Amino acid sequence: MDQMVFRSDTVLSDVHLLLPNRGHLMVHLNVAGQPVFASRFKILRDCKTQDFGHGSTTAEQEEKTSHASGELGRDEKKMERGEEEEGNNLEAQRSPKVPLDEDGDLDVVRRPAERVPTELCLRNRDIMYPTILSRTEPDATEEEQVEEEECPRDVIKIEHTMATPLEDVGKQVWRGGLLLADFILSQLEMFRGATVLELGAGTGLTSLVMAMVAKRVYCTDVGHDLLTMCQRNIMLNTHLLDSGDTNSEFGWSEEEVADLHDNATVLFAADVCYDDNLTDSLFRTLYRISSNLCNPGTIYLCIEKRLNFTIRHLNVTCEAYDYFRHSLDNLQDLVDGKMRFTVEQLETCFPQFLQYERVDQLELWKVTASHL
């Protein structure tokens, strides 16, 4: 699977386009017959000092800092000694006479090849069987689908596709979700103990990061196959979650609807505005949910401004982004006597915790919803 065949309607995530092939492992085929890969996203910074709920005390953090400083000093001394030894080795290599042939070229003495009997080669060779990838059946149990594997607490394991038609791009990992995950990790106290709703969760990566600190996260999307992939990713990352029900069936119970109505204060979505119809559906849903919540809500929307050359305009345009900005303006200018929305663009200069290219086209918007 090193070479993939792309059709004219194939969409490939920039995240996987820029990362090396060895960073992804193909694990199985989904119900649609699309190859599913497993990628690991390591949290680059020490998030334990920010306390996900079981953080270190101040004294422990100071002790770790001093210990790290001591190790740094010892590493510097080792590097200095290593440089001295390397210099001595270079001098020693220059001193012996290099064997040369008549023309002055380097004369290399080749070792004769060992001849091993064919029977011995076949007898010592390991027997290998091909791995046949099969589609994941919808009725397969989670225990059969999820492999038992220990994963460090600072690593997020995500199963995803790499090349899909436009209608299935939610099965991929996009930079907007990674930027929103960085924002969550940089503002832990803001989301600690909150009840949160994500719209268009896709692979569920951002919801997983939010679940590391929030009280409850409702991870939503459309399509049984997409929700199955999201649920599988939750099962693969139980090491990140302190508690909670990770085996919920798809759908809403009366208790969950009541909890969302009474306690939800944060809504967010990332990279879901690539089609005008989807953008209209997103803003209608945001208005309907915000107007029915008991508490004032804060909405975080992340989008990547994608430049495309169109034949219609004969120029580089960002039609999906322009329509998203138009929808934001309409939401802020809305006057219905029930709700007031305040729109604000946030700076993206917060620390980066995950490995991806934070391009200038990534934007994060904050919408504050309040009842009149």
List keywords for this structure.
372 residues, alpha/beta, six-stranded mixed sheet, three-stranded antiparallel sheet, 11 helices, 13 strands, 34% helix, elongated, transferase, SAM-dependent_MTases_sf, Methyltransferase 22, Kin17 lysine, protein methyltransferase activity, Methyltransf_16
What would you note in describing this structure?
There is one protein chain. It contains 11 helices and 13 strands. It is an alpha/beta fold. The protein has a 6-stranded mixed sheet, with helices on both faces. Strand 10 (308-310) and strand 11 (315-317) form a beta hairpin. It starts with 9 loop residues before the first strand and ends with a strand. GO terms for molecular function: protein methyltransferase activity. Keywords: Methyltransferase, S-adenosyl-L-methionine, Transferase. Residues 61-81 have a biased composition (Basic and acidic residues). Residues 53-106 are annotated as: Disordered.
Tell me the total number of β-strands: 13
Q: Helix count?
A: 11
Rg value: 27 Å
Low-confidence stretches: 54-69, 128-133, 137-148
What integer is the average pLDDT? Answer: 78
- The termini sit apart by 56 Å
Shape: elongated
Strand order of the largest sheet: 7-6-8-9-13-12
Helix content: 25-40%
Run of helices and strands: EHEEHHHEEHHEHEHHEHEEEHEE
- The portion of residues forming beta strands comes to 15-25%
Structural class category: alpha/beta
The main β sheet shows up as: 6 strands, mixed
